[in-house]
């Protein structure tokens, strides 16, 4: 199959919310109006001004020997692209993505956060030929609390499967099944054109 699409983490999150978002956005080219949402704006501000409050104390604790900030990576192998907040190179010879979230840590990690970090990890592995078996999140609304996430082979395989499904929708103009969580449909911006 010829690749005519490259997937970003934000596109993956749309897919996980409802696969039909990909069809409406990337096949029919019908945009969402999400620019005015507070969290989206605030999240972008956090990313733009992160360097002003960035601290190095936790990096020594987890064995960081080098870091690269705001790297724009592409992976032809996995048809991915995106900007990674930080790539941490660790003293055990591995690397890890670090992502800042404008959120409070409430003793659980959202699956969407983990999926995004796995995508970053795939790009790091592909670009640097280095193992990536963990990732980090900084919760900016919990005093920059650092959380480590372990990434398994099964985690990688699950995300690769999602990538394959997204590419099928885009490249083959495939109309997928909608979300099973029908409560998501109530406020969906595509509800007037989505055939149930």
What can you see in these coordinates?
With 196 residues, the protein is α+β, with helices and mostly antiparallel strands. The chain is 38% helix and 21% strand. The chain contains six helices and five strands, in the order ααααβββαββα. It has helices spanning 9-17, 20-27, 38-53, 57-61, 111-128, 153-171, and strands spanning 64-75, 80-90, 95-101, 134-139, 145-150. It has a five-stranded mixed beta sheet with strand order 1-2-3-4-5. The longest helix has 19 residues, at 153-171. It is globular and about 55 Å long. The two termini are 29 Å apart. Residues 35-42 have low confidence and may be disordered.
Biggest β-sheet: count, sense, barrel? 5 strands, mixed
Helical percentage: 25-40%
Low-confidence stretches: 35-42
What is the general shape?
globular
Measure the end-to-end span: 29 Å
Mean pLDDT: 86
Order of helices and strands: HHHHEEEHEEH
Order of the strands making up the biggest sheet: 1-2-3-4-5
Number of strands: 5
> Rounded to an integer, what's the Rg over CA atoms?
18 Å
| Portion in strands | 15-25%
- Distinct helical segment count: 6
Structural class: alpha+beta
């Amino acid at each position: 199959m010829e690749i005519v699409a490259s997937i970003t983490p934000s596109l993956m999150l749309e897919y996980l919310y409802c696969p039909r978002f990909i069809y409406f956005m990337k096949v029919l080219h019908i945009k969402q109006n999400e620019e005015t949402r507070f969290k989206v704006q605030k999240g972008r501000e956090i990313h733009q001004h992160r360097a002003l409050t960035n601290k190095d104390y936790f990096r020594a604790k987890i064995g960081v020997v080098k870091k690269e900030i705001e790297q724009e990576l592409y992976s032809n192998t996995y048809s991915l692209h995106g900007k990674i907040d930080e790539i941490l190179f660790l003293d055990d010879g591995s690397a890890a993505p670090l992502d800042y979230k404008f959120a409070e840590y409430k003793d659980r990690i959202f699956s969407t956060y983990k999926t995004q970090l796995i995508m970053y990890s795939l790009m790091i592995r592909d670009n640097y030929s280095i193992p990536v078996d963990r990732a980090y999140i900084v919760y900016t609304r919990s005093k920059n609390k650092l959380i480590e996430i372990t990434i398994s082979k099964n985690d990688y395989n699950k995300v690769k499967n999602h990538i394959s499904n997204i590419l099928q929708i885009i490249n083959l103009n495939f109309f997928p099944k909608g979300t099973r969580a029908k409560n998501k449909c109530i406020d969906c911006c595509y509800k007037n054109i989505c055939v149930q």
